[in-house]
Amino acid sequence: MSKDKTGFEVPEQMRDFAEQSVDQARKAFDEFMDATQKAVSKAEDNASAMQAGAADVNKKALTYAEEHVNAAFNFAQQLVKTNNVEDMMKLQQDYLRKQMESLGEQTREFSNTATKRAQEAAKAAQKK
């Protein structure tokens, strides 16, 4: 046992108890940090999977927008070349029909892609 200049003695059991307490606190802290690092890593992985899926969906959206703009320019070029109202009306009907068909197909593709990416991200989150 140790004695300091004031005559105060720290019992050996108190020292052992304090040492065990510090060891337990360190162990608890280390476990907490490990769990935190795993959670952060999982969140980063999930975010990466979501970002990859979002990037794919964004690319599709841009592609669809470009297709629609190109179709509108083609329609405008054809429209200025018409000679009468009947040709203009037929051209407009054809353009609208094609755009609606295209929009329907793109909506299905977009929905399928978004659903697929969301499912992939959910699976990746469950694996971790």
Automatic annotation (TrEMBL):
Region annotated Disordered, chain positions: 105-128
Biased segments, Low complexity type: 113-128
Domain Phasin: 31-127
Entry-linked Pfam families: Phasin_2
InterPro entries: Phasin
Name used for this protein in its record: Phasin family protein
Species for this entry: Roseibium salinum
Organism placement in taxonomy: Bacteria, Pseudomonadati, Pseudomonadota, Alphaproteobacteria, Hyphomicrobiales
